[in-house]
Amino acid sequence: MDFMQALRRRWADVDSLVCVGLDPEPSRFPHRFAGDDDAVFRFCRDIVDATAAHACAFKPQIAHFAALGAEASLERLIAHVHEVHPGIPVILDSKRGDIGSTARYYATEAFGRYGADAVTANPYLGRDSVQPFLDHADRGVVILCRTSNPGAGDLQDLPVDDGKPLYQHVAAKIAGEWNGNGNCALVVGATWPEQLREVRAIVGNMPLLVPGVGAQGGDVEAVVSNAKSADGSGLVISSSRAILYASSGDDYADAAARAARDLRDSINRYR
Ligand SMILES: O=c1ccn([C@@H]2O[C@H](COP(=O)(O)O)[C@@H](O)[C@H]2O)c(=O)[nH]1
Predict the structure, then answer these.
(1) Of 26, 176, 215, 236, which has the fewest CB atoms closer than 10 Å, so is most exposed?
(2) Please, are residues 90 and 82 in contact by the beta-carbon 8 Å criterion?
(3) Where is the signal peptide (predicted)?
(4) Is 240 helix (H, G, I), strand (E, B) or coil?
(5) Run of H or E including 49
(6) Under a CB-based contact definition with an 8 Å cutoff, are residues 263 and 53 in contact?
(7) How many CB atoms lie within 10 A of CB 51?
(8) Which positions of the chain have pLDDT values less than 50?
(9) Tens digit of each residue's pLDDT (9 = 90 or more) over 167-223
(10) How far apart are CA 50 and CA 97, in angstroms?
(11) For the chain, which residues make up each domain, given as ranges?
């Protein structure tokens, strides 16, 4: 089953648009992990196992592992998801973007080394820089369009040609030209509900990865109302810190499960 099929099946099977972000920060781990050499893997594994029933996808952020020298933990974590929770797609958030000859290696890193089902990519260098990812037709390529951060508009809102902002051209180009294999999705931040509405109008039913609820304060009702697809799905709404660190006590896994379930329920109220 390819990434898009797996995602659609998962939306339906668990009636959830929640993506659980995996952004390990050892200083925020519960005390029981102090001195544990394998803390990054074990903490993330516990979160995965506790939240899987409510998740349409998992999204590990590569810098959170690489900065700790914990790439091996990331490999094991993704293998764990595939082995213990088959059918839940893993989106590796690495936002890669480089000339084509190097991008080939980034594609091998994401899909070969880590075994991710999808990867985030930066379109700034143009189509040839994303093509090595697009060529993996069974994997998803989730391309930055209108990011969740405060400075997103610095470049992404610059008017192009007809006065429309750059992010709308990115959305149109990817939906119209880069999606020949049907494996593209876009990143649009939950913090920008109006832009979400604009992008949905441009891309039809293409999946949107939407980070920015939870710790960044995005409004769930506005996200879902403005950006759901025609059938009430189409969204991968990602939350990391609000789920991972819902409790710093020994109930961290149960608290994470409750946070993921509550987010699912709150999203479903507006679908
Ligand atoms: O526009 C973007 C693209 C990616 N991210 C990533 O999502 C998570 C958000 O974490 P929270 O704790 O839920 O705020 C993080 O890994 C970012 O790198 C994003 O926030 N915005």
Answers:
(1) 176
(2) yes
(3) none
(4) coil
(5) helix 39-51
(6) no
(7) 26
(8) none
(9) 999 999 999 999 999 999 999 999 999 999 999 999 999 999 999 999 999 999 999
(10) 33
(11) 3-269
Q: What's the length of the chain?
A: 271
Diameter of the chain by CA atoms? 58
Ligand 1: residue of 240, 243, 263 to mutate (most ligand atoms within 8 A of CB) is 240
Tokens 């920015």 sit at which residue?
212
Hey, whose CA ends up nearest to atom 5 of ligand 1?
211
Pairing of strands 164-165, 159-160: antiparallel
3-269 belongs to which homologous superfamily? Aldolase class I (3.20.20.70)
Cβ–Cβ under 8 Å, residues 204 and 175: yes
Bridge partners, 119 (sequence order): 92, 141
Predicted-assembly ipTM surpassing the 0.90 threshold: yes
Q: Determine which helix (DSSP H) or strand (DSSP E) holds 197, and give its type and residue range.
A: helix 193-203
CB 133 within 8 A of CB 107: yes
- Cβ–ligand 1 distance for 240 under 6 Å, the answer yes
Ligand 1 within 6 A of CB of 61: yes
89 lines ligand 1 (CB under 6 A): no
DSSP class of 250: T
